[in-house]
Amino acid sequence: MLTPLCAKEEEKHYPLLATEARPVLLVAGDNDPHCKLALANQLAIDLGGKTALKLVAGNHNLELSGAMCQQNGQSIEDVEIAFRRKISALAMSIYAWIDASLTNL
To answer: pTM for the complete prediction?
Structure first.
C-alpha cells in the first residue's frame, strides 16, 4: 500500500485489510498529514507478522517541502535529483521485499 490513509484513529479506510492472507507492505512518508506515523505503525502491528512498514522521508507524495529544502540550502536541481534517487531506492526496496515475501510463502 503506497501512502495509505490513516490520519485519524476513528477512520477505518481499509476494513477488509485484516482478512488479507497475503503479505502486506505499507509505504508511508514520515511527514504525511494523511497517515500519522503512530497510526501507520499501529496498523502494521494490528495486521501482524505478514505486514511490513517502510517509512520514507516526505509527505503523502513522498516529497519534502520546499521550505525544508531551502532551509537545508538545496537547489531545486539537487532536490529533484535527491527525489529521483529516493524513489529509485524505494523501488529496489519494494522489489527486495516482494522477492523475500514470495520466497517465504
So the answer is: 0.80
